[in-house]
Amino acid sequence: MPGKRVVQLGYGMQGKASLVDLLAAPGIEEIVVTDCYPGFEKDVAALGDPRVKAVRVDASKKEDLAAVMMGADVVIELLPGLFALPVAQTAAELGVNLVSAMYLANPGEQDPTRREANLRELARIDAVMKEKGRTILEEFGMDPGI
After folding, report:
1. Helices 84-94 and 62-69, interaxial angle, to 10°?
2. Domain range holding 129?
3. What is the pTM (predicted TM-score) of this model?
């Protein structure tokens, strides 16, 4: 049975720690790590593990995210908060499991109209993921930690 393909979006502080854990986990055949800062590919290559591949991605470009997420067994999202919901939407469209470090519902949103719209979108994403037999786990960032 082939190993799992994991896509990790983000190689900041949490991303570096997450990658250490992924490298130690059994059953992972391929880890695709994405980020946008210059030189991160060299940092990832310096790890010397053939299972790890660095791909430069601009997270604001949905089609670029979708291309790297497609076919993953699980996507680990460790990007800034503004990308959490778009990544979840893309995961639902593609039918890939997602673990996100962020809140998908903004707990600080005070506008009732925006809160309600966000909750409707989360319900839609939930229904799509259930229909596809996939899972989203959110709020797994530094508190409590992935």
Report:
1. 50
2. 4-137
3. 0.92
